[in-house]
């Protein structure tokens, strides 16, 4: 059970969680439905969050290219969010990174496509009136 201890607090007592409880309390309080937070609920939420992040990192490492490089990268996490049904809800939070030049090119192509569609729509309307 010693590995459940993440560190020590200011008094030297063992801590059960690594995440700062004050930050978690602020996040939980930001919900309009929450009026007060029980200390046990706060600690359980922190521990559950730690376990979730650990599971996400382990899964991404095992199923990504991390094993080859012995490192976990952002792209491993974003691939997991995109490809795994379990982590699909994270796809908006962990989007795939693209180069700015690639994004600008995609934006220009979309703009050109929209202009083409607008000009086609306008010419169809003129023909219909004649």
Structure write-up:
The chain is mainly α. It has 2 domains: 2-97, Orthogonal Bundle (Histone, subunit A), CATH 1.10.20.10; 98-130. 60% of the residues lie in helices and 3% in strands. It has 5 helices and 2 strands; from the N terminus they run E-E-H-H-H-H-H. It has helices at residues 21-29, 39-63, 66-69, 74-83, 100-129; strands at 7-8, 14-15. Strands 1-2 form a two-stranded antiparallel ribbon. Helix 2 crosses helix 4. The protein is extended and about 70 Å long. The model is unreliable at 1-6 (pLDDT under 50). One of its GO terms (biological process) is DNA-templated DNA replication.
Short description:
The protein has 130 residues and is mainly alpha-helical. 60% of the residues lie in helices and 3% in strands.
Task: Describe how the helices and strands are arranged.
Layout: E1 7-8, E2 14-15, H1 21-29, H2 39-63, H3 66-69, H4 74-83, H5 100-129
Antiparallel strand pairs: 1-2
Helix pairs in contact: 2-4
Q: Could you say which structural class the secondary elements and strand pairing correspond to? A: mainly alpha
Q: Within the CATH hierarchy, at the fold level, what is the topology of the largest domain?
A: Histone, subunit A
* Number of alpha- plus pi-helical segments: 5
Q: How widely separated are the two ends?
A: 83 Å
Contiguous low-pLDDT stretches (5 residues minimum) are 1-6
Largest sheet: 2 strands, antiparallel
Mean pLDDT: 82
How helix-rich are the residues, as a percent range?
Answer: 55-70%
CATH superfamily of the largest domain: Histone, subunit A
CATH class of the largest domain: Mainly Alpha
- Structural domains: how many: 2
Cα gyration radius (Å): 24 Å
**Topology as H/E string?**
EEHHHHH
Query: Architecture of the largest domain, according to CATH?
Result: Orthogonal Bundle
State the shape. Answer: extended
Assess the beta-strand content as a share of residues. Answer: under 5%
In total, the number of strands is: 2
